[in-house]
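User: Need the bound-state model for LLP:
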Amino acid sequence: MLLGTQRVNARGHLEIDGCDAVDLARQFGTPLYVMDEATIRERCRAYLAAFRDRYAKFRLAYASKACLCAGICPLFEAEGLDMDVASGGELYTALQGGFPAARLVFHGNNKSEAELRLALEAGVGRIVVDNSLELERLEALAAERRAPIDILLRCTPGIDPHTHELVRTGQVDTKFGFDVNGCAALTAICRALQAPGLRLRGLHCHVGSQLLDTEAHEAATHVMVELLAAVRRQMGVVLEELNMGGGLGIRYREEDRPPSLDAFADALVHALQEALARHDFPAPTLIHEPGRALVGEAGTTLYTVGAIKEIPGLRTYVSVDGGLSDNPRPALYDARYEVLLANRAAVPPDTVVTIAGQHCETDTLFPDARLPALRPGDLLAVQSTGAYHFSMASNYNRYPRPAVVLVADGRADLLVRRETYTDLVRNDVMPERFRKG
Ligand code: LLP
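Assistant: Bound-state model below.
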């Protein structure tokens, strides 16, 4: 499976938008996260077009938790997207990346007062309020300011999507948001509408992530429009924004079949139009904030093969120079991937091996990878690692985090430098009483 701008070049190497993977590994070292600019831009444009062709009042925000560093921000800015940030750190990074604050949407289920102040001082466009404590904090902060604070309320539509339990968020039993069914949502909306310094612009929900069908989104759309209609009926207010979160799944394996953007937009806009018609409700601005669908398939991780251990009759373990610290997803979500031999990419696979990480535990990265016979020094490429890989990387076992490069039309720009051992001890403090000499 080749994705985006990937191809096999005349040297038999994997190439990503004109950059030879073997050359990238030589220049930047491994493990290496490679992001393909053309694919990111194409996904942004395709997502926008699929919805705008069917529903004019559509805005797209990039959920930056999927992959964020300063140098990636200009891409989303140039493509006309807004950006979702979900912590003070993401907010700070987006601002460092020059992203216009007014186009930032600030999320989080436990925002501190300091984070809220940072967001307000920066002038973020929307704060998505998750709970009553936050509503209280914002009311207090609003009293100190002259300008009103534009907010959305995060609601929980009570929809249980079919996806891994750790990435389900729309069901009743979740820490996120105000429950729609139990009336918490209506109560919070009423309070937000009455708060003097707050300007409630609309509602938000996010049902879950890596969704491979449209059912949950459609059901949530009906619930949210019904809620908009209830607000109009009970409070006489027509809210004008409906943010339906993210969640569209991508292809990790050849057999994965996420809906196409056209099919996805068709189903969701149809559900929205139907619900609006049923309640005779005026069309709100529809907002989506996908992360994975915009950057997931644009990322490839390169690893160098090291030790190979064959257990006759059982299995062959191939260790690579990364693992749990640069990709926790197999351990967390049983995630599976396509793996290619980047330096002999035209050779057909004829063996099945288990690719292991190098951490001090059984950190199997890819069980049953179908590959040609491997040798130490070979270069492996793991597909669809653009979302939630770099952003979830850790320093477990004190491995420095990999570099991130952006490739475009034969050039490769460093976005994030590889960490060094010095970086690893930068914040360590040796208590005076333990110091030697
Ligand atoms: N909006 C909100 C409020 C979210 O919580 C999320 C994801 C998104 C948008 C973007 O969702 P996406 O379009 O990327 O599915 N670490 C997990 C994914 C966690 C997603 C959390 N929230 C993984 O590696 O699969």
